[in-house]
Write a structure and sequence with these properties.
Layout (H helix, E strand, L loop, with lengths): L1 E17 L2 E15 L2 E7 L9 H18 L5 H11 L4 H19 L3 H4 L12 E3 L4 H13 L4 E5 L5 H11 L4 E5 L6 H13 L2 E5 L7 H10 L4 E3 L9 H4 L5 E4 L1 H4 L2 H13 L3 E4 L6 H8 L7 E2 L12 E2 L3 E2 L2 E2 L11 E2 L8
Helix pairs in contact: 1-2, 1-3, 2-3, 5-6, 7-8
């Protein structure tokens, strides 16, 4: 088995702000695995919040690729992910990259799209939100208007500043007919969150994501108990083992491949959420179609979808699963994840 690891610095269309940082590029690591003439691709945009970087992932991947090569069979996915977890337990982003590549490779060898290999229903894919990052109220309004005009019926609005109300009001005025979900990225105190929930409800907000610090489960529970708006846990719920801890403190959990370490760990998290009576959402970073495409194939399993990361890039070297309005069309994928490197003329290779 051969492999290739690349680091890419992908520019964003606009600076993307959340409560704790603003980004202008997406630091991405791509791995390509080739076995018996077929190549699978995986990628990740690591997050410093979870103590990983493009540099650390790129340094770790060759060792993990050697493990996959030793096993020698991309269809031995349970064994592969078990051994990768043993080798890199504290590096879920590195494991995610290879998880995607292995699943893509195996499905391409079978000439099947992933969702069909898993027996999932492509008509059960929820619409994805489009995320409006923190910016001036005027620029946030402009982004919201453009997204609504492009067919997005659901917006995620990043908050967590002193001017939250002005920003949300600007978005609501610019896109009066869309559903708005709010994400504070752990920026508020419990009392701030409870106080803000009143006017968020008046503004028609339909989801409140991670209002308080990740480790403060009691405060998360207090916010959930205080508002009728469904509350989602993101930073508070990293892997399946976190689900019992947050089960009575939220209504929804947000699964991200980059947090939990790949496709099979994400599936375990979603199953745990279902077992505890929680709704689930699939989320992402600002990242390439080379990783977004894999997550889309899990979309029939969830209630909410937030997989717009590739749409925030100025350019992406990979095509992915096409969007029809705000719904991903899995039936357009012929094999694997659907991620394909674009040729120099802008079309897929």
């Amino acid at each position: 088995m051969n492999w290739r690891v690349d680091r890419l610095e992908l520019p964003l269309s606009n600076p993307f702000g959340i409560s704790r940082e603003t980004s202008e590029t997406s630091e991405t690591v791509v791995v390509e695995l080739t076995h018996e003439g077929t190549t699978g691709v995986g990628a990740v945009t690591p997050s410093a919040y979870y103590d990983e970087s493009a540099e650390s992932v790129a340094e770790t991947l060759p060792t993990l690729c050697e493990t996959v090569d030793r096993i020698g069979d991309p269809h031995a996915q349970q064994r592969i992910e078990r051994e990768l977890d043993e080798q890199a337990a504290d590096q879920p982003a590195a494991r995610m990259t290879l998880s995607i590549a292995v699943h893509d490779l195996a499905a391409r060898q079978l000439d099947l799209p992933l969702y069909r290999q898993w027996g999932l229903d492509p008509d059960a894919v929820p619409p994805t939100t489009y995320t409006v990052g923190i910016d001036s109220p005027e620029r946030m309004a402009e982004k919201a208007r453009k997204a609504a005009d492009s067919g997005f019926g659901h917006l995620k609005v990043k908050l967590g500043t002193d001017d939250d109300r002005a920003r949300l009001d600007a978005v609501r005025d610019a896109a009066p007919d869309v559903e708005i979900r709010v994400d504070a990225n752990a920026a508020w105190t419990v009392q701030e969150a409870i106080d803000k929930a009143d006017w968020l409800a008046d503004a028609g907000v339909t989801m409140l994501e991670q209002p308080v610090e990740a480790d403060d489960i009691d405060s998360l529970r207090r916010v959930t108990d205080a508002t009728a708006i469904p509350v989602a846990a993101d930073e508070s719920c990293v892997t399946a083992s976190d689900v019992p801890r947050v089960a009575d403190a939220c209504d929804i959990v947000n699964a991200k491949l980059v947090k939990c370490g790949g496709i099979r760990p994400a599936t375990r998290l979603l199953n745990a959420a279902d077992a505890h009576g929680l709704d689930s959402m699939l989320g992402c970073m600002v990242e390439s179609n080379a990783s977004i495409a894999a997550a889309v194939h899990l979309a029939p399993l969830v209630d909410y979808l937030d997989l717009d990361g590739a749409l925030l890039l100025a350019s992406d070297p990979y095509d992915g699963v096409p969007l029809d309005g705000d719904v991903f069309d899995l039936t357009a994928v012929t094999a694997g994840t659907g991620a394909r490197r674009r040729s120099s003329d802008g079309g897929p290779d």
